[in-house]
Write a structure and sequence with these properties.
4 strands, 138 residues, globular, two-stranded antiparallel sheet, binds heme C, Cytochrome Bc1 Complex, Chain D, domain 2, 53% helix
């Protein structure tokens, strides 16, 4: 019995390796419900679409042409520099920086603020999910 329990726990941890923690998964699931509401053919988020959202440049904050990568860098495993303040930013990759994408409040706060910086509007639920899948894949 004890052995079975240990096995269950181990397989649970392994199954979650590379996945989101329960509260983040809850957030992702709620974004999916919202995305489905505005797009009937929506099936799942997509890291490739997220990459485009992350790397494409737009006239953003203070009229400057920037992308998400302008502050977070092109290589998410490395530290980067804020394009406006020059302050150093820790790597966004959850693989290199395990604190990333673990706290729903932080993620919501920064997605809202950062979409406004780059796109001058809040991201749609689908855009947020796509970009989170992209960051998660890095
Ligand atoms: C003007 C600079 C800047 C831009 C542009 C920017 N970010 Fe950020 N981002 C930050 C800062 C500063 C933080 C908070 C400090 C930190 O967490 O290191 C942050 C934090 C985050 C976080 C929180 C991650 C976590 O779990 O801790 C996410 C997600 C994120 N950014 C995604 C994005 C996305 C997506 C875009 C493009 C739409 C973007 N950022 C554009 C500066 C920026």
């Amino acid at each position: 019995m004890k052995k079975q329990l240990a096995l269950l726990i181990v397989s649970g941890v392994l199954a979650n390796a590379g996945g989101f923690n329960p509260s983040m998964q809850g957030y992702i699931d709620s974004l999916k419900v919202e995305a489905k509401k505005s797009n009937n053919s929506f099936a799942d988020f997509n890291a490739k679409r997220g990459e485009l959202i992350f790397t494409s440049k737009h006239i953003g904050k203070r009229g400057r042409e920037i992308s998400c990568a302008s502050c977070h860098g092109a290589n998410l495993s490395l530290s980067s520099q804020n394009a406006f303040t020059n302050k150093s930013i820790e790597p966004l990759s959850p693989r290199t920086n395990p604190k990333r994408l673990t706290n729903v409040q932080d993620v919501q706060k920064w997605l809202k603020r950062n979409f406004n910086d780059v796109y001058k509007r809040e991201g749609t639920p689908q855009e947020k999910g796509d970009v989170l899948y992209y960051i998660k894949s890095k």
